[in-house]
Automatic annotation (TrEMBL):
Claim: Transcription regulation is one of the keywords in the record: yes
InterPro entries registered for this protein in UniProt: AraC-bd, AraC_XylS_family_regulators, Homeodomain-like_sf, HTH-like, HTH_AraC, HTH_AraC-typ_CS, RhaR_RhaS-like_N, RmlC-like_jellyroll
Source organism: Aporhodopirellula aestuarii
Keyword Repeat: yes
Lineage: Bacteria, Pseudomonadati, Planctomycetota, Planctomycetia, Pirellulales
Protein name: Helix-turn-helix domain-containing protein
Length: 304
């Protein structure tokens, strides 16, 4: 009988103050057993060798390997030969992933979404491999993050989050430069995702996204939907609705103007899709954040 997979809890590793990032060094990594987490990890191999085991497959590890482990994915390390690594534990729901232009980077989507989803199919060959200079730079960033988390002086939350996002951005840039045959397929899909993130307010067709990916229609759709759990057009619609929510919370523009700003050409269609995704009408959502008088009766048009 297989032993149950241990689930590592946030309360076991995260500080009582609730800050959503922890640095854990394994120097060396000791045998641990198959486990999953309530949190996510960025794993950077700093030395030695071993095998990364997922419960189904196993993959060789060496210095410079960098990858992301989603919380629900069981894994372990075996055949340890002085394996050294750094884990950056984080609560995926608490990090500012929409900060700036991070989601406009193909390497971000490849590293944090696509590679974990396709790890088994690609035999882990699409993981990021840092060269010695890149590894040294990443370790330097982690040391600055670790110092803030250790000292926890006034302002550490801002400084630590800044260091974390700098590390994420650096790794995303490294992946974007890592365009060899083993990672090219993921980056082609990531290019299409980044295009959506940048040009969401413009007309975007499925045919154009397929052209950007340089993949067959069937392969592009299968890869995109497997990784993102949405079709490309539905992903675009959800992004537009999210951007509309941002405006609705702060803008004095009319709902029709906001709908046009985020790429909808029909405000009634926008209102229907908004209600489907958010659960309330755009007007009711806006009323939560702005001083708007309540409406009476049934809303016939978004700007009534």
């Amino acid at each position: 009988m297989n032993e149950p997979i241990r689930v590592l809890r946030k309360s076991q590793f995260f500080h009582p103050d609730g800050f959503p990032i922890v640095v854990a060094r394994r120097d060396p990594q000791e045998p641990f057993g198959l486990h999953s987490h309530e949190f996510w990890e960025i794993v950077i191999i700093t030395g030695g060798s071993g095998r990364h085991v997922t419960g189904v497959d196993s993959y060789e590890l060496a210095a410079g390997d960098a990858f992301v482990i989603g919380g629900a994915r069981p894994h372990d390390y075996q055949d340890l030969e002085g394996l050294r690594l750094i884990n950056i534990l984080f609560d995926n729901d608490e990090l500012p992933w929409n900060l700036g232009d991070l989601k406009e980077m193909p390497g971000y989507h490849a590293l944090f979404t696509l590679e974990p989803a396709f790890r088994q199919r690609h035999r882990f060959d699409s993981r990021l491999r840092l060269n010695p200079m890149e590894l040294a730079f990443a370790i330097e960033k982690i040391e600055l993050l670790e110092r803030e988390l250790d000292e926890r002086t006034a302002g550490f939350r801002v400084m630590a989050m800044t260091q974390m996002m700098q590390l994420v951005t650096f790794l995303a840039r490294c992946y974007d430069r890592f365009r060899d045959p083993r990672s090219q397929g993921l980056l082609e899909v990531a290019d299409a995702i980044a295009h959506i993130e940048i040009h969401y307010a413009e007309p975007i067709t499925l045919d154009h996204l397929i052209q950007i990916s340089n993949m067959s229609r069937r392969n592009f759709l299968r890869t995109f939907e497997t990784a993102m759990e949405d079709s490309p057009i539905q992903y675009l619609i959800r992004l537009r609705i999210r951007k509309a929510c941002e405006q609705l919370r702060v803008s004095k523009k009319s709902i029709t103007e906001i709908a046009m700003d985020v790429g909808f050409s029909d405000s009634n269609y926008f209102s229907r899709k908004f209600r489907d995704i958010v659960g309330v009408s755009p007007r009711d959502y806006k009323r939560r954040y702005l001083d708007m008088p309540p409406t009476s009766g049934t809303e016939a048009d978004p700007d009534d």
